[in-house]
Design a protein that fits this description.
Layout: E1 5-9, H1 24-30, E2 35-38, H2 41-48, E3 61-64, H3 71-77, H4 79-82, E4 87-90, H5 103-111, E5 115-118, H6 124-132, E6 139-144, H7 149-166, E7 169-173, H8 179-189, E8 195-200, E9 208-213, H9 214-217, E10 229-234
Helix pairs in contact: 7-8
Length: 236
């Protein structure tokens, strides 16, 4: 039997509804789906609620995938695909597989020769890079930075050295409640001539993308709220 298709479905990173961020032809495929792999079922149902699903929500299968999902659990999530049914993969916010545990299911699907089709949607990483004014020709998304302070500061120095050596924009992040500490470490570690972009709550009504030299950031009393935030550094 022919296997199903794994569709990668982006979700809003702001207050918009799912129907407002997807292409019409992609929505036409999503509303037919009966199986989803999601981070949080409650969030997934809320997002799908803006679409006219052909199957009642209570009858739609919501299989969970998180960083704690074991490898044998991934094979269980693929079962509908092996049975010829299509599956939608959704993260809580943004694009599946990007800073998201969904990549583990995607590589399992690739290894099983299952067709993987990503849909177009918002990515805070790309939006931040676009709005930063820093090099978009060569960049690296480094994900979450270490929690240990000494390791964190070493990693920032490494990112800065790569930016200086390669001209490559370095992007990193932490959980929102550690935004302020990460900001303080960044401005204390980096050279005054290095440029730092803060991309806070990108796409939200109160979000912003601001780029200045470290020297200029040090002149300001910055207090970052506990909202999703990306840090981008490079030399100009």
């Amino acid at each position: 039997m022919k296997t199903g298709t794994l569709y990668l479905i982006p979700t809003p990173i702001d207050d918009r509804e799912l129907k407002d961020i997807l292409l019409k032809e992609d929505i036409e495929k999503i509303v037919k789906l009966k199986n989803f792999v999601v981070e949080t079922p409650k969030n997934a149902r809320r997002n799908l609620g803006s679409l006219e699903m052909e199957t009642p929500m209570r009858e739609i299968s919501m299989m969970e995938l998180s960083e704690h999902t074991k490898n044998n659990g991934l094979r269980e999530l693929l079962k509908p695909l092996y049975a010829g049914e299509d599956v939608g993969l959704m993260s809580d916010a943004g694009s599946p597989s990007i800073a998201d545990p969904g990549y583990r299911l995607v590589i399992e699907a690739q290894n099983a020769d299952i067709l993987v089709v990503p849909f177009v949607g918002p990515s805070s990483i790309i939006l931040a890079l676009m709005g930063s004014g820093l090099n978009g020709q060569s960049f690296a998304f480094n994900g979450y930075i270490p929690k240990d302070v000494e390791e964190l500061r070493k990693r920032i120095r490494l990112f800065e050295s790569l930016a200086l050596k390669l001209g490559q924009t370095q992007i990193y992040m932490d959980t929102p409640y550690r935004n302020q500490k990460l900001y303080e470490h960044t401005v204390s570690v980096c050279n005054p001539n290095t440029y730092l972009c803060i991309a806070l709550n990108v796409g939200g009504e109160d979000g912003y993308i601001k780029t200045m030299s470290i020297a200029d950031w040090r002149k300001n009393d910055i207090q970052l709220p506990k909202q999703p935030c990306l840090f981008l550094i490079n030399r100009i």
